[in-house]
Design brief:
Number of domains: 2
Oligomer: single chain
Number of strands: 19
Radius of gyration: 21 Å
Keywords: Signal
Structural class: mainly beta
InterPro entries: Secre_tail
Protein name: Putative secreted protein (Por secretion system target)
Largest sheet: 6 strands, antiparallel
Order of helices and strands: HEEEEEEEEEEEEHEEEEEEE
Shape: globular
Distance between the termini: 75 Å
Number of helices: 2
CATH architecture of the largest domain: Sandwich
Helix content: under 10%
Mean pLDDT: 84
CATH class of the largest domain: Mainly Beta
CATH topology of the largest domain: Jelly Rolls
Length: 265
Amino acid sequence: MKLKLLLGTLVLSTISAQAQLATIDENFDNFTIGTSATWPQNNWSRVQSGSGPWVYADGTTDKHIQYYSFFTSNTAGYLISPQIIAPDGSKTLSFKAAITGGSAGGATGTVEVGLVDGINSSEMPSFTPIGNVITLTSADTTYSFTVPASTKQYIAFKITGSAQHTAIQLDDVVYASTATLGVSDQVKFSDHDIRFALNAENTALQFVTRKEVKNVIIYTANGQKAAEGKLNSQRFDISQLQTGVYYILIEAMDGSVLKTKFIKK
């Protein structure tokens, strides 16, 4: 009887264990909205406070994660991903975020992305940043970071409002290989911020930018990396590329990313 009971416990433990994810593609549309909804949801977790800040799902047909500072200021709330396979440095995280119109006048907001050891408030001191702190604007902007190799297996979004009644939205979280990002429309921001054109010789891309460009990656149509580097006098050399269609991933210094394509003739 004891052997049967032990075997049953082992089977139950196996079924209950959360599978570690290799990738994430979450738009939060299947989440239950409201501050009183039960968490975790879809294996996502949150850390918040009763008097603020709150972190919860909101929206109607297009749901998102809402941060609301309520009666606190300069206090972080956390959104924490499902457990992932320990990062090996080959994947990129992208997401959309903005400070919203419901915020108090003059309020500002930030998001910092990091890795943590677990999903509870006691484990948030383990937060290890993977990029610069993002100061949000009212424009719904997509940001992207390379996730470094780590033994930590949870991605955490540390969201902070500068004043009482600061409202911040976060949506469309994608954690995938850089090649996947290179051949999809998962990351982009206003093309007015960064523009480029082929020169007459088809040997370089000439850039005109409002934002400082940190890095450029070019992929072939089948997702293979073809070139990577920084701008040189607002130009990027493509003289070694064959003719064809290419996808380009342009990372700005503020963490935002533009994905588009061009044809080399």
